[in-house]
TrEMBL record:
<dbReference type="Pfam" id="PF00072">
    <property type="entry name" value="Response_reg"/>
</dbReference>
<feature type="domain" description="Response regulatory">
    <location>
        <begin position="8"/>
        <end position="126"/>
    </location>
</feature>
<keyword id="KW-0597">Phosphoprotein</keyword>
<dbReference type="InterPro" id="IPR011006">
    <property type="entry name" value="CheY-like_superfamily"/>
</dbReference>
<dbReference type="GO" id="GO:0000160">
    <property type="term" value="P:phosphorelay signal transduction system"/>
</dbReference>
<protein>
    <submittedName>
        <fullName>Response regulator receiver domain-containing protein</fullName>
    </submittedName>
</protein>
<dbReference type="InterPro" id="IPR001789">
    <property type="entry name" value="Sig_transdc_resp-reg_receiver"/>
</dbReference>
<dbReference type="InterPro" id="IPR050595">
    <property type="entry name" value="Bact_response_regulator"/>
</dbReference>
Length: 149
């Protein structure tokens, strides 16, 4: 987990400007969020495997509409049941959206066209993780049961 006090987001995005934009929007919000933007397929798998994020956003357009294939790689290599995975893109085509779900996405969200829309979308996506962290400040990972002597 990147941080115990804020919602941790891994953003899989090959456009550095889009990554910086999301990072800046989240930094300027009143909601504690930390965004780590990764720019390659291998870095995405590594970040999700080792950082236990609260939310994984994958750009549909990653590598030229390769977001769904990156998501399949993540699912094949990492047990990602602890965080929602959302494909984030400009696709308005029903085929593109259905392909998002076929690749293992928990949701598909269209990228908003303005800062306030982007912030509102991300805040809604991280709200469940924020509530969980408030209820379980020491984490939600199950501990092994010890046998009584």
């Amino acid at each position: 987990m990147i941080s115990d006090t804020c919602a941790d987001i891994v953003y899989v995005e090959d456009d550095p400007l889009a990554g910086r934009l999301l990072e800046e929007v989240c930094r300027s919000s009143g909601t504690p969020m930390r965004v780590r933007t990764v720019h390659s397929r291998d870095a995405a798998v590594e970040a999700v495997a080792h950082e236990e994020p609260d939310l994984v956003l994958v750009s549909v357009e990653f590598g030229g509409a390769g977001g769904p294939s990156v998501l399949k790689d993540i699912h094949e290599k990492v047990d990602i049941t602890s965080a929602p995975v959302v494909l984030f893109g400009n696709a308005e085509n029903v085929v593109d959206i259905s392909g998002a779900y076929e690749s293992g996405a928990d949701a598909y969200v269209q990228k908003p066209s303005n800062f306030s829309g982007l912030l509102n979308t991300v805040e809604q996506l991280v709200a469940p993780a924020q509530r969980t962290k408030q209820l379980y400040p020491h984490g939600t990972h199950a501990q092994p049961v010890r046998e009584r002597a």
